[in-house]
Write a structure and sequence with these properties.
0% strand, 461 residues, single chain
Amino acid sequence: MILNDFLFLPITLILVYFLAFRLRDKFTIDLTRGYFIPALTVKLIGAILLGLVYQFYYNGGDTFNYYLQSKIIHEAIINKPLAGLSLLFSDGTYTPSTFEYATKIYWFRSPSEYFIVKTAAVLGLLNGHSYSSIAILFATFGFSGVWALYQTFVKMAPQRHMTLALCILFVPSVFFWGSGLMKDTITLGALGWLFYGAYTGFIKKNITALSVLSILIPFYIIFKVKLYILLSFLPPLIFWVFLENSSYFNKGFSRFLLKPFIVILGVFLAYQAAINVTEGDIRYDLSKIGERTKINAEYLYRISLLQDGSAYYLGDLDGSINSMLRIAPEAVNVTLFRPYLWEIANPLMLLSALESFIFSLLLISLLFVPGPLQSLRIIFGHPVILFCFGFTLILAFAVGLNSYNFGTLVRYKIQLLPFYLTGIILIKHYHAISFQKLPGVNEQIQPPVNFRIKSIEKLSG
């Protein structure tokens, strides 16, 4: 930390908490009000801790690279405003007015990294370009998206508000790796808002300015920063929307006949969406993705072996789609359930290993309650759960296949963890509801005492 951190960090924290307390009643209900400030607090703590870990454990890293390169833009804005503005709107092309500064920015021609650099530069204008203050603002945006995600799921299962809070707001790896001056913080926040906007606009049919902006802006952010998250999110989302809207068809035999066609059409449109989104992007061109994955995997595996010994190996890749699909189960397994407890190679892996062990136990618990067959019935009977696991599996496959390092993997997988854990909670939730409907079972699930009429009205809205 430097002098301006000591000066601006307290001011930034005061302003963030002031706004949080002022806005809490607007963005909470009686059920969720008590989680708002604690959830924000752990995000802010995560932002500071991440900076300290990178400074004293890693002796540098991406978060400080973003900061230092954004400082170049900050200085350009102060000294040569026109050049600074040109840098903010630059597409990575050198020009006479920006050349002096652009040549000092290592990520100037790397669009996704440069997006974070520019964002940090803009936020730095508010606080003397203090690293800690910029990280706090990143964390605040990340919190806003995660809170929108939490509120959306609470509408579906209000009785599970506490468990959902634990699974979405308070998972240690999520609020640690998803809170600092990093890509992951921005994409996690954007993903939460995108889910909120899609649910509000496409599922609940409540088209408002907020729901539209909650789709367009996050879509753009994720597209610019981590396109593969969008590619993992869009197909199950489109599939979910089609399944939910199939209820508008007449019930009975006609709907029974039409539903398979709706499912096929949903899959086709999801595939076309993925093709169109990746058009012109050599990193995600489906015709070359196998070859690029092979090169990337081999490179990362060699580097990981040399650096810290936290590499993992999935199997041989020959550059074909078939070889990728062959090791898909291993890729999903490594993302969700590894590192195992006996694979811990450094202190930071301990947290990830303990979490992975708990995630394994949660999945295993479904074998007993409600049981494998009933779990499958619930998954395929509730499109939102199908979406959660669809997104989880696609993204788990993608990050497991392209990380080959447990340290990188723990950051990449935080985007899917809230959906994976919520999917399990919703299975248990809908099983409990169906159990109460069985003949001879009279006890009904009652909402908590403090679930007042005001809360019901706000949820229904």
